Amino acid sequence: MKLFAVFGDPVAHSRSPLMHNSVFKHLNYNACYTRVHLNDGSKLKETFFSLGLSGANITVPHKEAAYEACDEVRGFAEKIGVVNTLINENGRLIGYNTDADGFLFAIKEFKNIKNILVLGAGGTAKALTSRFIQENIKVTVLNRSNSRLQYFKELNCSCYSWSDFKISKYDLVVNTTSAGLKDEELPAPKEMIEKILNSTFYAADAIYGKMTPFLKLAKNKNITYKDGADMLLGQGLLANELFVNYELKTEDIKKFMSKSFEL
Ligand code: NDP
Question: Number of folded domains in the chain?
Fold first, then answer.
């Protein structure tokens, strides 16, 4: 039996085991997927191999550590230095990133998105921003601190920390911070978030499975919003294709992965 896992801190909230096990079970694929709580990202590689894993997903805060742990990084992940999917290929650790395409899958119903404000500057922000730019979307990045903004400056994004933020009009604002994940915090001071929401058509949160304070505010303002569930489905679908080495049909994976969201 093949064994897969999701690594994170926190990880108890992760729906990935439900999603992937639903696919494996219904399609009779001999595999099992579990959660691994990992504090220290530098221990990722040794933990992966000591557990005898065939593949894994990586969640907050280890996606950049996962990039460092890889023997080879392929596709979009190589460009951004952020890995959310690991594959054991004959004892070599191969890294991929499926988050950005998962997010594009999630916002298909939002039309005419040309100008996005990204809240946060971590791994998810890097993945989404780089992918948006490939789609010729203008991106502004707002982060709590300055330290992580250099990457986005090099992509020619308008970049701000809370202390120097200059607001504009946006089609979509996306929360990629972990504020709201295990607390009731907003991704920026309330007054700033209020102004931002007054200047956007759509709001989205990468966090899933809960109504974050950010989405509650968007709802109160009658803004069309969505949480991170479809992004999760999109990235999971693409990761599962890698796990099973494309042996299962995409439509079947989608069907049974979606089914797990009904649980
Ligand atoms: P990282 O740890 O790489 O980045 C976290 C970011 O959040 C940093 O910019 C950090 O700012 C900011 N931040 C953390 N706490 C706060 C706070 N209290 N207030 C304001 N900003 C804060 O995380 P990831 O990019 O890996 O993940 C971010 C979120 O996206 C997580 O909640 C994760 O669960 C979710 N996610 C969901 C996916 C899905 O499929 N739905 C896929 C991928 C991620 P600073 O630089 O100042 O520290």
Answer: 2
